[in-house]
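ok so I'm stuck.
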Amino acid sequence: MTRAVLGRAHGPFIGLRPYLARDRPLFLGRDEETAALVRAWSRHRLTVLHGDNGVGKTSLVRAGAAPALADQGHTVLATGDLCFDPAFPSAVLPGQNPYTRALLAVWSPEEFPTHGPGTSVVDFLRARGGTDRYGRSRPVFAVLDSAELLLRRSSVPEQWRKDFLEELLGAVEACEDLRLLVVVRTGHLDELRRLVDKSEAEHTEMELGPFPPDTARSVVAGCLARVGSRVGAAEPARLVEEARSVRATDGREVRRTDAVEPALLQLVGLTLWEEAVEGAPTLVPDDDVELDRALTERLAGLLEEVAAEHLVPPDVPQAWLRRLVVSAATDAVGPVRDDPESSLTLGVIHALEDRSLVTTHVEGHTWRLRHPRLARPLLGLALSPHARGLRSWSDQDRLAVANGVRTRGEAGLAAEHAAQALRSRPPPGPGAHALFTTLMADLAFERGEHRTAAEHYAEAARSRRAVGAEAAVLRLLVAEARTRLLCAERSTALALLASIAGRVHGDPSLRVGIGQVLWLVGQGGAALDELEGALVGGGGVTEARRTRGRIRDGAVEDRGKG
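replied:
not stuck anymore, here's the structure
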C-alpha cells in the first residue's frame, strides 16, 4: 500500500491498495469467490485463505466476505493490519505479547488503549460470547490478515511470533464460537500448515487466483460504468489486453498471459486513467511506448517511496529490480543478496513484495518479478529519471512509516525515522512529539536500555501534559516508573506511583500496570487493590488475574516459611 493512494480512490481504479468496505461498488468480479469464502468461514472454526501477493486476498475479505456476513447480522470483528502502537507504552505491561495487543487493537479499536491491553485472545473472545433469541451461541467472525508477516524472516524476536501464533491457534480450540480466518501468501502456506497441524485445529483452505480474461474485461467495464466514464466500449478489452501483454525487453516479441493479475490490472488502469485527458474517448494509447513511459513514471514513484521508507537512495531498489529483470530474461534467477553490510536489506525486498512488484521464489531464497508486463517499464528507469518527487511527509505519515517498519521487525529503521522526525524543522506538534518519543522509549526498553527508556518516557509525558492529555500522561508515568525501578531507582519509581494514585479509575489496563509495579516494589496489598479494580473495570483481565495469582501464591509461600 502506498501513501499516494492510501485512503482515496482514483476514478474507477484504486491502484495497489486493497479494496475496503467503502469500495464495495467498485469491487467486482469476485461474487463466486465471496460466496465460497462466506460458506467456508461460516462452517469451519479455522479457514485459511491463500494466494500470491497482489491477487486480492485482503480485498476479498474486507470488501467482500466480511461485509456480506455483517449484512446477514453476524458479529464480525473489525479488520485491519497488525501494527504496534506507542499510544500504549511497552513498559506498562511488558509481559503481554505485543502482537496480541496489536491484534486486539485491530479487532476492537474502541477499547484501545484503555481496556484491550493486558487481555489474552481467549479472554477477549469469551467476553464477546452471546446467544440468539433461541439460546443458541452466536459465532464471532475474526481475521488475521497478512500472516506472512509472522512467518517470513525478520529480526522480530522469533519467540514473540511463535507464542502469538500458538496463542491464536489455541483460541480456535478453546473458543467454540470463534470462526477465525487467516490470510497468508501461498509462499508461506507450508509454514502455516505445520503450525496448524501441531495445534490439531479443524480447518479448511481456500485458494484465490487471478482473473480469467473475460472476468477482467467485465470488471473494467463495470468499474468504468459506475463512475460514468464516457470512454469507448472497446476500451475494457484493450486495457485487459495491455495487462496480459508481456513484451520482450527488446520489444520484438509479445506473448499474452492466460490470466490477469488484479494488482497489475489496477496499476495499469490507474496509470492510464490519470494519463488520459478528461473526457477523452480512449483510455489505452495506440503507442505501447507511451504506456511504458507512464508505467515507468509510476514505478519510479513507488520506488521513491520504498527508498524513503528505508532511508536508502532510490537507485538502490531500482538497480536490484533491473538486475532481477535481466536475470529473468536469461532464466538465471539469482539468490537473494541478504548481506547485512549491503544497503539492500530484506526489509527493502519485503517492501517491494508488499507492493506486488516481486514475489518469493523457491521457498523464499530467491525472488522473481511478480508481473513480467513491468519488465520493460522497469528497465526504463535506467534511461530517464521519471520520478514524480514525493510530497512532504506529515507527522502522521512519518509515524505510520515508523510504526510499520517496527512491526515488521526493522527496529533500527523505526528509531531512525523517529529521530529524524524529532530533529525536523519545524518540529512535530506536542502530540506527535510524544508518540515519536514514546516509540524511542519502547525501542530502548526492548533493547534493555532502561535508563534511556525512562528519560524518553519522561520527555513524552511532558509533551502530553502540555496539551492536557491526562490519560496518556498517566500511561507514560507508569512506564517510566517501571523503567526507573529496573534502573534501581526505587524511590523515584515510588514517587511516580504516588503522583498517579487515585487518577486512573477509567483506565483498567493501566491499573494492571500500576499493580504490577507496586508488587515489584514490595507493596502486595496495594497491588491487589489495583488489580481487583482493573478486573471490575473489565480491562487487562488476563494480566490482572495472572499477577494476582502470583502475589497470592507468594503470600501463601511466605506464611508457610513463617
